[in-house]
Design goal:
10% strand; elongated; three-stranded antiparallel sheet
C-alpha cells in the first residue's frame, strides 16, 4: 500500500491524496512535478531512480486506507541537478 506522503521532499509543497502533480520513485520518495522538472532533472536525489505519477487513491478508500501524515523534507534542501 502506498504511503501517499503529504508533501514534496524538496520544497515542502502540500501534496494531498488527490494531487495530480505528485511524483514518486520506486521507494516512494515524493516530489512535486515542478521540483522534479526544474531542480532534480527527473532523477531522484535519494536513490538515483526515475519518477512516475503518484496514483490517486479513490476518495471512498481514504477512510479505510488513510494517507501518511508524516512529512519528509530534505534538511539540506535539493541541489539542482546538472545534466
Amino acid at each position: 500500500m502506498l504511503e501517499l506522503r503529504p508533501n514534496c521532499e524538496c520544497c515542502d509543497k502540500d501534496l494531498p491524496p488527490e494531487a495530480s502533480d505528485a511524483l514518486i520513485c520506486t521507494f516512494e520518495c515524493t516530489f512535486c512535478a515542478d521540483c522534479v522538472d526544474t531542480v532534480l532533472g527527473g532523477v531522484c536525489p535519494n536513490c538515483g531512480g526515475n519518477f512516475a505519477p503518484r496514483p490517486i487513491r479513490p476518495a471512498a478508500k481514504l477512510t479505510k486506507y488513510p494517507p501518511s501524515t508524516k512529512r519528509v523534507l530534505k534538511a539540506e534542501g535539493c541541489a539542482r541537478r546538472v545534466a
